Amino acid sequence: VQLQASGGGLVQAGDSLRLSCAASGRTFSNLGMGWFRQAPGKEREFVAAVSRSGSNTYYADSVKGRITISRENAKNTVYLQMNSLKPEDAAVYYCAAGTAGLSVSRGAVDYWGKGTQVTVSS
Fold first, then answer.
1. Which phi and psi angles does 87 have, rounded to 5°?
2. Rounded CA separation 46/26 (Å)
3. How confident is the model at residue 25 (pLDDT cuts 50, 70, 90)?
4. DSSP secondary structure string, the chain?
5. 74-119 per-position pLDDT tens digit
6. Is 13 within 8 Å of 1 (Cβ atoms)?
7. How many Cα atoms are found within 13 Å in the side-chain-facing hemisphere of 67?
8. pLDDT: which is higher, 48 or 26
């Protein structure tokens, strides 16, 4: 599975940004999808995950209410809508896929994409 993330950039605090991740190489609807992020000097952390069908989602406490994950199986794409961005949201964001569905939220990741940088200025 190849995962290509896009949509990162430089924004101001309070702005919104939408990340996209296009998948190829395997039946997309068989994969749980997620987003992780890694800030400089910190470990990679879970952000959000969505089940194979898109009907179930799971979020890190730090982003609940501000970030929404969704997917379009017809387009083999998962999205991360980020609102009310904070400087502490700045990181490299990675798209992830797992054959164990929503368990990707617990690190059950089989495939990683290359990251996309999100920078938030205060």
1. -55, -35
2. 23
3. confident
4. -EEEEE--EEEETT--EEEEEEEESS-GGGSEEEEEEE-TTS--EEEEEE-SSSS-EEE-GGGTTTEEEEEEGGGTEEEEEE-S--GGG-EEEEEEEETTGGGGGGT--SEEPBPEEEEEE-
5. 999 999 999 999 999 999 999 999 999 999 999 999 999 999 999 9
6. no
7. 28
8. 48
